[in-house]
Amino acid sequence: RFAGSKLDYVNIPTVIFGHPTAGTVGLTEEQARQQYGSDAIKVYQTRFTNMFNALTPFKPPTAMKLVVAGTDEKVVGLHIIGRGCDEMLQGFGVAVKMGATKRDFDSCVAIHPTSSEELVTMR
User: How far are the Cα atoms of 23, 41, 58, 71, 107 from residue 88, in angstroms, in the given order?
Assistant: First the structure.
């Protein structure tokens, strides 16, 4: 039954369980520029303090990057560092695997207050 089954190794979400947690799916900005050409790539980024740590003296970083390609702005890379990125990446990994565009991300209602809302409100 599964003899012909093969895992697709493209766009596998990967997480480093460190402090803070870091995760990625898809291409790096450099890989995207090599594959699609620099003119076809646009990068959206944000950095902030997670609300969980907003009132504490320790403020670990949260940073996110979307790498998009082409006029349709297909999301070809998504990179996150910060609290909860492991959980966020599982869902956003599905979106990247399905070929989501920046417009698809923008049309998603943001869940407030969460860090993941940053990925669907980047400008």
Answer: 9, 23, 22, 26, 17
Tokens of 57: 């003296």
Cβ neighbors of 14 (< 8 A, separation 6 or more) are 23, 24, 25
Of these residues, 1, 6, 19, 112, which one is catalytic? Answer: 112
Question: CA–CA distance from 111 to each of 6, 29, 38, 116, 123 (Å)?
Answer: 35, 27, 33, 8, 17
Q: Is 112 labeled as catalytic in the residue annotation?
A: yes
pLDDT tens sequence for the chain (123 residues): 788 888 889 999 999 999 899 999 999 999 999 999 999 999 999 999 988 888 899 888 899 999 999 999 999 999 999 999 999 999 999 999 999 999 999 999 999 888 999 999 999
